[in-house]
Structure formats: structure tokens, C-alpha cells
Automatic annotation (TrEMBL):
One of its GO terms (molecular function) is metal ion binding. This is Sirohydrochlorin cobaltochelatase CbiK. Residues 134-190 form the Rhodanese domain. One of its GO terms (biological process) is anaerobic cobalamin biosynthetic process. PROSITE patterns: RHODANESE_3 (PS50206). Pfam families: CbiK (PF06180). Its EC number is 4.99.1.3.
Length: 281
């Protein structure tokens, strides 16, 4: 019997508690969904891998090293699901690297594919609407929105069209008092401030739109420093509360990543002529 593995790839975190709640929890969902596969972990950040090894007994491989070990262990089928939010530079570089490995390791792995990130497909031409599905999954984390309260999502990254699209998709879903900004680009925090003023909001819930909500990120988002998002909102006169959980802790978000890998596996089967039907990878 051939040995099969799922490699779950994320940026990583050095916060052990957050790792367990978000990344490990997401990995466990793959173990349930793919009982015939062995589930393995890899991080894309070499800095996180190094710091984690220095400050704990956890040893995590990078993607290349993980694949080498799987090949050496006799695995012939390896499928990779990145826990990326969008197709940003990290995801794109990782997929390009993995694609090159797929081509160079054809003799070692008979089957290999990569799932898409959380937000990619727009719901056109028979493809699923990743945004609508993710928004539905996030509703369990949202407070009831009235005329005077709002939700602000902080996205990690810069100038990602996916986050501007997320803002439009939130409006399409009828969630009017929800706004999106990126840490280093567009949509901007200043734009969110203008929109909050326009709707005359009085209370704001800050939600990190990231996989793992680390202490470092929460300090940036809601620390006592004057330039944190929480401090700036309070200075503008808003009552502010903070959601401290990452998306990786949400079972409905975990299920989306699982489905994206299932889509990739179906697409692989169709390319090999094993099955007919819609593929969304």
C-alpha cells in the first residue's frame, strides 16, 4: 500500500499557545477529514523555525526539508494545503517553489498538488465564492451590528486586492457596518476612520483577520502605545473592544481549508482522467 501524506503549511508562530489553538487545531481538522493520510506540518518562515527551536523543544521543518523527509520515508503521494489567507507574496513564492519541487520530484512522488488560499475564487463561471463562504464562516465571531456599532478587520499585509474585494463582498452580504484595512497598505486605516465617522458609529470591535493571533500582533493591534489601532480609535472617541482569536481557531474556517484541498485533489483526478465533474482548484 502506498504511503500518503498531507502537508499543512503556514507562516508559523513562536507563541506555543497560539500555535496549539490555531495551527495545530487546523491541522487536526485535516486528520479527521483525511484519515487515510498522515498529516505533517511545515512553516514558511525560517526565522520562526529558528526562534521556535531556540525557545522550545518543538522542531518544525521548512517546506523543502519536510518534502525531503517525506520522500526519504517512502511517501509516494503528498498533497499540500497552505493556511494562507490570500494569494500574497508568501503564498505565491511558496506555490512557485512547491511547483518546481513537483516537477523535480516526479520520480519520488507519484501524486502531488497544492490547495488554494482562503480567499481566491470570486464565484464566477461555476466556481465557488470563497469570500461569501468565508464571511458566512466568520459570522460566529461577529457581534450583532446595529446602527451605532461596527466591526473593523485588521488584515496582515499590504496592497492586496483581495482585501479590497473582501470589503465589497461584506457589503454584498448585507454586513454594512464592517470595514477592512491592511497593516501596511490599502485599504487604509485612515479610510476606515472616515467610514466610521460617516455612519456615526460609537462602538467598534477590532478583529484580527489572520490565521494566528499572536501576542506580538495583538500588541500592534490593541496595545497601550498611542499608534495602535485601539488607541487611535479611542482617541477618535470610540468605545473599543478586541477579539483576540485568530481565524485558525474557527472550525468553520478550518473546514474551508479542508474543502480547498479536496477541490485540488478532485482537479488532480480530473487531469489524470480518473473522474468527471466540476473542479475548483
Amino acid at each position: 500500500m502506498s504511503k500518503k501524506a498531507v502537508l499543512v503549511v503556514s507562516f508559523g508562530t513562536i507563541d506555543i499557545e497560539v500555535l496549539k489553538k490555531s495551527i495545530e487545531s487546523a491541522e487536526n481538522s485535516f486528520k479527521v477529514a483525511f484519515p487515510e493520510y498522515d498529516v505533517h506540518r511545515a512553516f514558511t518562515s525560517q526565522e520562526v523555525i529558528k526562534k521556535l527551536a531556540e525557545h522550545s523543544d518543538l522542531q518544525v521543518d521548512g517546506v523543502g526539508e519536510a518534502l525531503k523527509k517525506l520522500a526519504a520515508a517512502g511517501y509516494t503521494e503528498v498533497h499540500i494545503q497552505p493556511l494562507s489567507i490570500v494569494s500574497d507574496k508568501t503564498y505565491t513564492h511558496s506555490k512557485e517553489y512547491i511547483t518546481s519541487l513537483i516537477r523535480s520530484k516526479e520520480k519520488e512522488f507519484k501524486k502531488m498538488t497544492v490547495g488554494r488560499p482562503l480567499l481566491l475564487s470570486l464565484g464566477l463561471k461555476g466556481h465557488p465564492d470563497d469570500y461569501h463562504i468565508a464571511i458566512e464562516a466568520m459570522k460566529t465571531q461577529l457581534p450583532e451590528l446595529g446602527s451605532e456599532n461596527a466591526v473593523v478587520f485588521m488584515c496582515n499585509g499590504s496592497n492586496q486586492l483581495e482585501y479590497a474585494t473582501l470589503q465589497l463582498k461584506l457589503a454584498d452580504a448585507g454586513i454594512k457596518n464592517a470595514f477592512v484595512y491592511t497593516a501596511e497598505g490599502y485599504p487604509t486605516f485612515e479610510g476606515v476612520l472616515r467610514q466610521l465617522k460617516e455612519i456615526k458609529a460609537r462602538e467598534v470591535v477590532l478583529i484580527p483577520f489572520v490565521l494566528a493571533s499572536s501576542e506580538h500582533l495583538l500588541k500592534y493591534l490593541a496595545g497601550d502605545n498611542v499608534d495602535s489601532a485601539k488607541s487611535r480609535l479611542e482617541a477618535a472617541g470610540y468605545k473599543v473592544s478586541v477579539c483576540r482569536t485568530g481565524l485558525g481557531e474557527n472550525p468553520a474556517i478550518q473546514a474551508i481549508y479542508v474543502q480547498h484541498l479536496k477541490d485540488a485533489l478532485l482537479a488532480l483526478e480530473m487531469r489524470h482522467g480518473q473522474r468527471k465533474g466540476p473542479a475548483h482548484a
